[in-house]
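> forwarded from #structure-qc
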């Protein structure tokens, strides 16, 4: 069976530019495309349409283990593993297959370990509790990175969590050597519950408040992307959700369960280029 070909040659990306992975934790596909069509997420719309994908897992912990091993969300139309487009390909997991054309083949246990071996400084800016280093389980994911950061102001209960994360990242960027390549992973948790406080008058989470949270996040991502271009130049960005969530569909609530609203996520990747940013 002919393997899928990576549409981006990651071997031309790795080593030549920074890589950003932005996880919009819990974002539903239907809400993402709803806001895209309404024009209410102008920053994310700037970088192309959302792709409908299969989630790697139905809650943060399994999904991130998969993504950090190179198994990002794959197209909803994918019917077998050989047809899965892979930007990052783990060489040490016993697949015994030829590296897909265009994929970056990495050794070690994670994408970050592979990139670190190739000279990247790997950063994690956490959000949800699986990145809260005050607990043992919250130390697992941060431990995969050269540098990892979490603060209560980045957490789900903080209404300005995304602004706080972006402010922190930009301070770090200003001090980072320009010649040092960076892999940044940021877990944006504003869309995760609770999100009712993003819609004036709301007292409970709903699809409407979920959408309002995404609109808030979009504006903050604009600050991150624009500043990254000014301070660092070109970068490759992976932007996706790790899983969706339910708001009462078929009697289902939240996530950690298998349901189409949980298992279907938005995904896109794109290049940040200074000339394309409307300063």
């Amino acid at each position: 069976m002919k393997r899928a070909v990576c549409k981006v040659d990651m071997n031309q990306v790795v080593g030549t530019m920074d890589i950003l992975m932005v996880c919009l934790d819990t974002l539903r596909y239907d809400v993402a495309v709803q806001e895209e069509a309404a024009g209410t997420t102008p920053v994310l719309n700037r970088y192309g349409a959302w792709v409908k994908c299969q989630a790697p897992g139905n809650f943060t912990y399994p999904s991130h283990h998969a993504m950090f091993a190179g198994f990002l969300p794959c197209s909803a139309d994918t019917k077998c593993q050989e047809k899965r487009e892979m930007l990052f390909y783990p060489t040490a997991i016993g697949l015994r297959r030829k590296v897909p054309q265009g994929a970056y083949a990495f050794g070690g246990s994670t994408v970050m370990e592979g990139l670190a071996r190739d000279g990247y400084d790997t950063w994690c800016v956490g959000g949800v509790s699986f990145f809260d280093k005050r607990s043992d389980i919250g130390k697992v994911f941060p431990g995969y990175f050269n540098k990892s950061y979490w603060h209560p102001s980045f957490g789900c209960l903080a209404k300005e969590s995304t602004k706080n994360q972006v402010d922190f990242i930009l301070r770090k960027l200003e001090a980072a050597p320009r010649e040092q390549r960076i892999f940044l992973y940021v877990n944006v948790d504003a869309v995760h519950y609770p999100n009712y406080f993003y819609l004036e008058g709301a007292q409970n989470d709903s699809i409407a408040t979920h959408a309002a949270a995404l609109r808030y996040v979009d504006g903050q991502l604009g600050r991150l992307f624009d500043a990254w271009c000014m301070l660092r130049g070109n970068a490759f960005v992976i932007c996706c959700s790790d899983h969706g969530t339910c708001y009462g569909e078929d009697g289902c609530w939240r996530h950690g369960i298998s349901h189409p609203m949980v298992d279907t996520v938005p995904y896109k990747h794109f290049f940040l280029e200074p000339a394309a940013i409307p300063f």
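QC bot note: The helical segments are 10-13, 29-38, 42-45, 60-68, 111-117, 161-175, 207-232, 260-263. DSSP finds eight helices and twelve strands in the chain.
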